[in-house]
Amino acid sequence: MSVQLLNIGFGSLVAAQRILAVVSPDSAPMKRLIQDSRERGSAIDATFGRKTRSVLVMDTDHVILSALTPEALAQRLSGREERSTEKEEEESS
User: Exposure of 54 by Cβ count < 10 A (0-12 exposed, 13-18 middle, 19+ buried)?
Assistant: First the structure.
């Protein structure tokens, strides 16, 4: 069994098999989830100071924040990474 790693931006990688959901952080329930995770110490901020554009909910009860959009992460996960996702990462720098 090999572990497939997903680049979530700026050199950060997560185990793709452990992801339950990739969602936008804009809704009130997601904001509460992020805040609760921070309070529990299970939030991992991988935005490197940039705006949070997606939230990865993991099966380990961790919440990972990424500066890439859910759409960009879905493209990377499906193996169809396009130049637009690379440009998106550069633009958020």
Answer: buried
For residues 88 and 93, what is the distance between their CA atoms, to the nearest angstrom? 9
Asked if residues 65 and 43 have their Cβ atoms less than 8 Å apart, the reply is: yes
Q: What's the rounded Cα separation, in Å, for the pair 28 and 43?
A: 17
Task: Compute and round to an integer the Cα radius of gyration of the chain.
Answer: 13
Alpha-carbon span 67 to 70, nearest angstrom: 9
Q: Tokens at residue 84, please? A: 């637009």
Residue 85 has pLDDT above 50, yes or no: no
Q: Model-level pTM?
A: 0.84
How many percent of the chain have pLDDT more than 90? Answer: 81
Q: Is the pLDDT of residue 83 over 60?
A: no
